[in-house]
Amino acid sequence: MRILGIETSCDDTGIAIYDDQYGLVANQLYSQAKLHAKYGGIVPELAARNHVHRTIPLIQAALRESAIFPKQIDAIAYTAGPGLIGALIVGASIACALAFAWNIPSIPIHHLEGHLFSPMLEENPPKFPFVALLISGGHTQLFQVTNIGKYNLLGESIDDAVGEAFDKTAKLLGLDYPGGAILSLLAKKGRAGRFNFPRPMTDRPGLNFSFSGLKTFAAITISQNQLNDQMRADIARAFEDAVIDTLIIKSMRALKETGLKRLVIAGGVSANFALRKRMRKKIEDYNGEMFCARPNFCTDNGAMIAYVGMVHFKRGMVNSKSSALSINVKPRWPLTALSIV
Ligand code: KG4
Ligand code: ZN
What we know:
The protein is an alpha/beta fold and 341 residues long.
């Protein structure tokens, strides 16, 4: 069985084909990062228009890469939300039209469910149950995951998502958009302890986060100091250390509260090398296990959508041909809405 996955929720066009026998047989990605960089953030209309240009050629490239014919595809999975409405509509329209033409079902996928299961594409996938830390440009959430469709929200950010805080702080430091990965590279040259940023909401009980204050703290630190290259690196380091400490403290608390030993980290920020290293050490010291996807499957990609599509296909959670043309996207869509009770 083979599923074609289409991801267009934000600024990456991701196309992949997942085969239940051979695993991932095609993976294509086009990043619009350069297109939006000059505006310092994503321009939704430009994102949608660019997906229009990229999606079909990337599907053709994926078919070539895997040497698979359209008639060998069993269903098309696409990101139906959450995300930018225009960008989502492009992927959904193409997915539903192709499914109709090829006479196969289409499968709407929740973007965060894709992220959550991206470590399943790796060699040592996590077993249920586990705690998942979902950290992306739009979300910072801790879930207790007992099975597919069993997601219990343990805590979330009450303001900025952690990726958003990375991007905003990067902008304050004069770095390009999206700044998370660039800030992290700069932080490597920074001296630990030169500045001391707060670890927000770690001194009180609970599993919620707050990251908007860190960005403000960075703005104040920048305004009070004469910026040079070393100083910028030191600020990047202090910011990153504070974020990592906070994520570790809350993830450990979630493991202790649930009594679980397995932690999945997923979403764009889980590509952060320093976070992966420090979190893994902490979890192993706790006799637990940490799971994450390879860095290019942490950020948006079609592979995770094709994979979750396969899981849903096997469970019969698909749109029939007759409903394939009623295109339905959900820009706002909590993951817990998927929960099967
Ligand atoms: O999951 P993702 O690709 O898109 C969303 O669903 O939001 O996450 C993108 C976010 C951006 O904020 C980006 O700056 C951040 O992930 N990011 C990183 C790193 N790589 C991507 N943040 C910190 N360190 C990184 N290495
Ligand atoms: Zn994402």
